[in-house]
Amino acid sequence: MSRYSKDWRTIALTVKEQAGWRCAKCDLQCLRPGDNITGLTKSERTKITLTVHHHNRMPEDNRPENLIALCTSCHLGYHTRKQSNVPPGQLSFEF
After folding, report:
1. Could you tell me the pTM of the whole model?
2. Beta partners for 53?
3. C-beta separation of 24 from 67 below 8 A
């Protein structure tokens, strides 16, 4: 059973839109829905994909102050520094 709410996609989209599709940590401009990805490799697309991180590492807690938009690299950085309850291999990113 997922710990994410049924409306997680909508919540995450709102956070990303409010961030202007930029990483809150490194300010990388990330892909927006509908952007032309022709010619980009999967690795290149992954690098510029915006994700949403829970500060307190609790996917059930979707309060705005607990959510931050991060690029894939910055998000993985939070998880690989053992600041999360989810191992990096279990993270899934939407394209």
Report:
1. 0.81
2. 68
3. no
Structure tokens at 91: 């993270």
Nearest to 71 by CA among 35, 16, 7, 28: 28
Residue 67 burial by Cβ neighbours in a 10 Å radius (0-12, 13-18, 19+): buried
Listed range (35-39, 75-79, 90-94) with the worst mean pLDDT: 90-94
CA distance 91 to 93: 7
Where helices occur in the chain by DSSP H, the ranges are 8-18, 42-47, 72-80
- Which residue type sits at 44? E
Q: How many CB atoms lie within 10 A of CB 14?
A: 15
Tell me the per-residue pLDDT of 38-56, one tens digit each, with 9 for 90 and over: 999 999 999 999 999 999 9
CA nearest 48: which of 59, 57, 35, 67?
35
